[in-house]
Amino acid sequence: MSSFEFPGEYYEIIRRSFRDLAAETDFLASYVPDGGRVLDLGCGTGTTLRELGARGFSCVGVDQSARFIDYARRAGGEGVAYVHERAERFTSEEGFHLVYSLFMTLNQLPRTELRQVLRKTAEQLLPGGHVVLEFGHLLNFVESYQQHTVAHHRGDGVLITRLARQSVNPHAATWRNEETLLVRDADGQVSLYDNFFDQAVLTGPEVRELLADAGLAVTAEYGGFRKEPAPGHGRGPLVIVASRAGEGSA
Fold first, then answer.
1. Is residue 250 a part of any domain in this protein?
2. Strand-pair category, 148-155 with 158-169
3. Same domain flag for 115 and 194
4. Pair (34, 93) in one structural domain
5. Which of 56, 37, 229 minimizes the C-alpha distance to 128?
6. pLDDT tens digits for 113-150?
7. Among residues 21, 8, 3, which one has the least CA distance to residue 69?
8. What does the H/E/C string look like for the chain?
9. Co-location of 187 and 132 in the same domain
10. Which of 24, 104, 171, 236 gives a 20 to 30 Å CA spacing to 202?
11. Same-domain check for residues 129 and 66
């Protein structure tokens, strides 16, 4: 369960504080043939898709946030189409060379729905296609836990103060992040937004088992988008690359 109904331009500013867009784009592009088709599950405001579209790929982005999709459509992007829909409900009659989900988006799906999404993803892959998942794992949650945090994000004359509270539901193995965004625009106007999301606390073995159940074989695991080795400690997400079982390595 999640809510991301605040203006997309603010998400863009916050995103820059967390992400390395160039590294993400290079990483993803390395798994797509020239002119290939790409699907982003949980595309947000379409930042990465616009970069991939500029490289000549045909891209589709899916996100449940109406305001993020509205921003993405206004931002445009060559060869990019956006769909306002939840990942588990999205269907397409066309296949893709790459299906990816970044920023721990799939952690926000209940486990039963995640299983269904991965099965559907495997069916949508074209021969030789790849799946790239960036997910938060158990140790990542444990080592990064802070009950209360305050962060400031600046850009385009805007100041965003993000007040966050984290809590754990041990019985459901979920992690809730509640945020209040206090935004001062370039003209001095101030606005307030509430945002929350629940994330399933997954383990590496659990994700590998879900992929195998979907008919996908893990071909590589990394600690980031520069293809650095997955660290031995828990801090930071895990990036997994998979393909249909029996179709070779990444």
1. no
2. antiparallel
3. no
4. yes
5. 37
6. 899 999 999 999 999 999 999 987 666 667 777 889 99
7. 8
8. CEECCCCHHHHHHHHHHHCCHHHHHHHHHCCCCCCCEEEEECCCCCHHHHHHHHCCCEEEEEECCHHHHHHHHHHCCCCEEEEECCHHHCCCCCCEEEEEECCCHHHHCCHHHHHHHHHHHHHHEEEEEEEEEEECEHHHHHHHCCCEEEEEEEECCEEEEEEEEEEEECCCCEEEEEEEEEEECCCCCEEEEEEEEEEECECHHHHHHHHHHCCEEEEEEECCCCCCCCCCCCCCCEEEEEEECCCCCC
9. no
10. 24
11. yes
CB 20 within 8 Å of CB 28:
no
pLDDT digits (tens, 9 = 90+) for 222-244: 988 999 887 665 566 789 999 98
| Alpha carbon distance 133, 103 (integer Å) | 9
Range of the domain at 223: 2-137+201-244
Q: Which residue in this structure is represented by tokens 């459509």?
A: 73
Which tokens sit at 98?
Answer: 């790459």
Contact 185, 158 (CB under 8 A): yes
